[in-house]
Amino acid sequence: MNLFRKLQERAAAGNPIRVGMIGAGKFGTMFLAQAVRIPAIHIAGVVDLDPATAKSNMSLVGWADDAYSATSLDNAIATGRTHLSDDWQALIAHSGIEIIIECTGNPMAAVTHCLAAFDQGKHVINVTVEADAFCGPALARKAAEAGVVYSMAYGDQPALASDLVDWARTCGFSVVAAGRGHKWLPHYRQSTPDTVWDHWGLTREQAERGRLNPKMFNAFLDGSKPAIESAAIANATELEAPENGLAFPPGGIDDIPTLMRPRSEGGQLDRKGMVEVISCLTPDGAQIPYDIRKGVWVVVEADTDYLKNCFEEYKVVTDPSGRYMTLYKRWHMIGLELAVSVASVALRAEATGAATCFNADCVAIAKRDLAMGDMLDGEGGYTVSGGLRPARASVRSGFVPLGLAHDVPLIRAVKAGTAVTWNDIRIDATTDAYRLRKDMEAAL
C-alpha cells in the first residue's frame, strides 16, 4: 500500500528504476504512456524489430522528440533519455539496466529473452503470457536459481486475478474458484483475423486508429487467450484446470457466486479450487448487464456459520445458500497498470504473480480439418486455438502447447476440434523454448 511513496523516495534520491523494454506494440505503448509521467521510472532502452515503429508509438503517446534521442545506452543513462534500437542482446547485457520488460508477444523469442536476462542478473517482467502458459514454472525456477525476480505483468488479467486470490487467502478465506471474464459464444472458436472485428465490438476503423493487431485480438475472441491466461492463473495460484476445458458459463457479476459452486451444489465447477471464465453473453448472444468481460474475480466460501452470518450482516451479494461470495475488479487496464509490477519488483523484490506449480496447460486445438503440410500459425491465427487442460493429462497425451504451435508444419492430418500432438508435427528441437518445455514435462 506504499508503493507510490517508495517511488517518490527513489525519484528524490536521483536513482530512478532503470528499465529496458523489448517490444513496443500495444501493451508496451500503453506502459510508455504512463512511464513518461513517473519520475522514478527511467525507460533507458526500447528495443523493437522496427525502431521506427517504437519511435512512432512513443510520439503517439506524448513523448517529446528529444526524450528518445539518446545515441547509446550509456548516453541514455547519463542524460535520462531513451535509446531506441533493434539490439536486444545489448539491452539485456548493459549493467545499468535493472529490469527487463518482455512484451514482444512472441513466446519463442520471449523465452530466449528471459533466460538471457537471468544470465545477466536482470529481473524480468514477462508480459508475453503465451510463454508463461507453457513454461512459466520453469522460467520462475531459472530466475530463482539466478537470484532474480521473475514476474507476471500487473495490468494483465492473470496477475490481477492472482492478486485477488492472494488477498482472499491472506484474509483466511477458502478460495473456491478464480478467473476472468470474456465475450464468448461457441462459434467464436473458428474466428480468424479476417472475422475478428465482426464480433469484437469495434469497427475496423476504430481498430486501425488504435493500431490494434487483428491476430492478437482474435486470440482473445477465439478462446485462446482465456485459456492461456487461465493456465497462468492456475499455475500461479495452485488452482486446478477443468478436466474438459473452460465452460464459459454466462452470467453477470452478481451471478458469479451461484455459477462458481461445485455441480453437486448447483454450480458449474467440477469441484472446489478451480479456474474458470465467465461469459458476458447469453447462449443466444444477448448482452448480460453488469458483466465481468474485462475484469477478474475470486469466489470465496463462508465455511463456518459465523462467516456466513457476517456476509449477511454486511449485505454481501452471495449465492442462494449465503455461503459463496465474489470479490472482483471489473476492468483491467493492461499496460497502463504495469508500473505496479516495476515498483513491486524493484522496491520490494516481489513478483506480481509467478508460477509456483504446473497444474494447467494451454494446448493447440485444430480450428478446422488440417492436412499434412499445413503450417500451424499459433494463437489468434487461422489453424489452431487454445484449449485449457490439466497439465498431467496434457503431458500424458503428448499435446502440443499453443505457445509452441508457431510456424510448425504438420506431418499428419488433424481433425477439427482435436488437440495437436507432438507426433503430428515437425518442430525444431534446438530452441530454448522447446528444450525448457521438455525439461518441465520430464520433471512433471
Give structural notes.
The protein is an alpha/beta fold. Helix 1 (3-12) packs across helix 15 (339-348), helix 6 (107-119) runs parallel beside helix 7 and helix 7 runs parallel beside helix 12 (224-237). It has helices at 3-12, 26-35, 51-60, 73-79, 88-93, 107-119, 129-146, 157-171, 196-200, 204-209, 214-221, 224-237, 256-259, 305-313, 339-348, 391-397, 432-443; strands spanning 17-22, 41-47, 83-85, 99-102, 123-126, 150-152, 174-182, 274-279, 296-301, 324-329, 360-366, 375-377, 384-390, 406-409. A six-stranded parallel sheet has the order 3-2-1-4-5-6, with helices on both faces. It has three domains: 3-155 and 335-348, Rossmann fold; 158-184 and 223-332, no CATH class; 360-428, Antifreeze-like/N-acetylneuraminic acid synthase C-terminal domain (Type Iii Antifreeze Protein Isoform Hplc 12). It starts with a helix and ends with a helix.
Task: Name some characteristics of this structure.
alpha/beta, Rossmann fold, Type Iii Antifreeze Protein Isoform Hplc 12, 6-stranded parallel beta sheet, 4-stranded mixed beta sheet, 17 helices, 17% strand, globular
Q: Pairing-aware structural class of the strands and helices?
A: alpha/beta
Task: Tally the structural domains.
Answer: 3
**Helix content, binned percent:** 25-40%
CATH class of the largest domain: Alpha Beta
Low-confidence stretches: none
Number of strands: 14
Proportion of β residues?
15-25%
What Rg do the Cα atoms give? 22 Å
Main beta-sheet annotation: 6 strands, parallel
In the CATH hierarchy, the architecture of the largest domain is: 3-Layer(aba) Sandwich
**Residue-averaged pLDDT:** 97
**Oligomer classification:** single chain
Shape: globular
